[in-house]
Amino acid sequence: xxxxxxxxxxxxxxxxxxxxxxxxxxxxxxxxxxxxxxxxxxxxxxxxxxxxxxxxxxxxxxxxxxxxxxxxxxxxxxxxxxxxxxxxxxxxxxxxxxxxxxxxxxxxxxxxxxxxxxxxxxxxxxxxxxxxxxxxxxxxxxxxxxxxxxxxxxxxxxxxxxxxxxxxxxxxxxxxxxxxxxxxxxxxxxxxxxxxxxxxxxxxxxxxxxxxxxxxxxxxxxxxxxxxxxxxxxxxxxxxxxxxxxxxxxxxxxxxxxxxxxxxxxxxxxxxxxxxxxxxxxxxxxxxxxxxxxxxxxxxxxxxxxxxxxxxxxxxxxxxxxxxxxxxxxxxxxxxxxxxxxxxxxxxxxxxxxxxxxxxxxxxxxxxxxxxxxxxxxxxxxxxxxxxxxxxxxxxxxxxxxxxxxxxxxxxxxxxxxxxxxxx
Length: 424
Hints:
This protein is mainly alpha-helical. The protein contains seven helices and eleven strands. 55% of the residues lie in helices and 8% in strands. A three-stranded antiparallel β-sheet has the order 3-4-5, with helices on one face. A three-stranded antiparallel β-sheet has the order 6-7-8. Strand 9 and strand 10 form a beta hairpin. It is rod-shaped. Mean pLDDT is 77; it is low at 27-78.
């Protein structure tokens, strides 16, 4: 097999292939294509031939550039162009280290090219480092800008939130001011009300003190009234137990003269009694009989008593005028004088009361019988003698004894009336 030679693209020196490549070239070629011979070192140069590289799947693939080779030696020893191209592709992959190399180079040119490439690579790496630094700076700046933009967005959001919060706080502050004003007005009103209540409380205590004092006075008055009431009730009980007639009229017949309420009725030669006292005694007797008739509901016939103290009299209902129960002693010698008629009329009224009392239960028994028409009193329980109550044609002793009999009857009538009308 004839050997194939390649020329370096840079220095045009023949290339020496490795044994592996030479062995690969020793394979038969399917097709042979005429080579253009070019005089290189006195030898004809083969014509460049271009053919597309087949794909691994066996389909032809169009190459972007044609590989120009300078073939040295006999072209008759080559087999086919396809085999040569496969060999060249294999050689190219081995020489270029799987990198695209347009033309084969010698070792020196390859070293120079590698040095240049290393220099270019170093320069490119330096530029790349510079670009990377600028890129990092740019990226850093972009990140910072992004961070700053994000920060600005976040700050704007926070600012918006703060502004909204400020507005809310301002509104709340305004509400607080309004509330404070309202509370201040309410506080002022409460203070005014408190002052008014304090004044009312002071006034209340003043009124309370006055009412307490008044209550104390009323309690004292109540106690006094209760004591008075108790005393009055006690007196009422005593009065109920006491006969009003016995308490009002006191009649004594123990001595020679009859006495009514300390007034002597009658006159004796040894015991001289003035007419004023006698007239007062007749007034007390007339008042006693008048009170008894009122209590008994008795209306006297023929006469009406008019007790006026020491000037008492009886009024005749038949038209005889007034009959006196008082005298000054100047009428003692006159027949049927008004004083004697008045005493007879008194006996008539006393006789009517005794007759009325005898009709009631509890018979009234008197020791001296009354004879009103004659104007005399009879000692029925004693000697049976009668004594005239008139002054005319009568002695002082008999007149005084008749008056004493009359007061004795009045005393018994008074006791009977006290038992009958003054109980309960």
